[in-house]
Design goal:
Number of helices: 5
CATH superfamily of the largest domain: CBS-domain
Helix content: 40-55%
Largest sheet: 2 strands, antiparallel
Oligomer: single chain
CATH class of the largest domain: Alpha Beta
Strand order of the largest sheet: 1-2
Distance between the termini: 73 Å
Radius of gyration: 21 Å
Length: about 140
């Protein structure tokens, strides 16, 4: 929820081993996004409060720091198009929204997993090279 703090988000990220948290309201409508980079920035601004124009701490409510202008995708969006968008705009995730409700999130880690699976499938299909028999030569 918007009223949770960056500390809450950090705890969730640590517990679930994730780097992005979509922020939703009680009806699962996407309100914003908090990233691991936001948490690190808040910790950094705690160390150097005089350097930051707007200082955030881990006690900062999510609504004060969350990204609200975020691109989303529909569940039927193509993986290739989603990956190209993420690469072009240098974003690490794309929330998946259906009829205004958050239904999932796809991350750069998901695309790495897909690439690994495809490479493993390719290895299974490729024929092995047979070394020529030296005696036959």
């Amino acid at each position: 929820l918007r009223t949770h703090t960056l500390r809450d988000a950090k705890s969730m990220m640590d517990a679930l081993d994730i780097r992005h948290i979509p922020v939703v309201d009680a009806n699962h409508h996407l309100q914003g996004l908090v990233t691991q980079r936001d948490i690190l920035a808040a910790q950094e601004s705690c160390l150097h409060p005089d350097d930051a124009e707007q200082s955030f701490t881990l006690d900062t409510p999510l609504y004060e720091m969350m990204h609200t202008n975020i691109m989303t995708a529909e569940p039927r969006a193509g993986l290739k198009e989603s990956a190209i968008y993420m690469q072009k705009h240098k974003v690490g995730c794309l929330p998946i929204v259906h009829k205004g409700h958050l239904v999932g999130i796809i991350t750069d880690t998901d695309f790495v997993t897909i690439a690994i699976n495809l490479l493993e499938l390719q290895e299974e299909v490729e024929p092995e090279e047979i070394e020529p028999d030296e005696e036959a030569l």
